Amino acid sequence: MLVIAAQVVLVYAAAGWYKVQGSRWQDGTAVHYPLHLGWFTPWPGLSALLGGSLLVTFLLTYGTVIAQVGFPFALLNRRLKNVLLVLMGAEHLAIAVLLGLPFFSLAMLSADAVFWPTGALVAVQRALTGRRRKSR
């Protein structure tokens, strides 16, 4: 678990710091481009809706950088960490739906689960085992 946690921290920190150095991330337009590429638009209407607003793409671009760079530091504060985990989960769900990358998103969501509070993990386990028992 410790190795997975260290790897997740390294992935987010490295990705965030590399993004800080990129000109598209600095000017706030990096999210705009994949939303308009044919390869990454399984839902063209939804991608066009989000990618059509400069303010939305600007906020998503900077929000991604801030979340990734801040993730290692957020681990020092339990409440901030939990808020950031929810934001990162929403980001990965959006990547799965908007960019058509469900396996990447599933991998990152499962790796992020290392940092989830125990109560949340127990609730997920109860929900999954309850549904499995009902389906039998």
TrEMBL record:
Transmembrane portions of the chain: 46-71, 83-107
Keywords, alphabetical: Membrane, Transmembrane, Transmembrane helix
Protein name per the record: Membrane protein
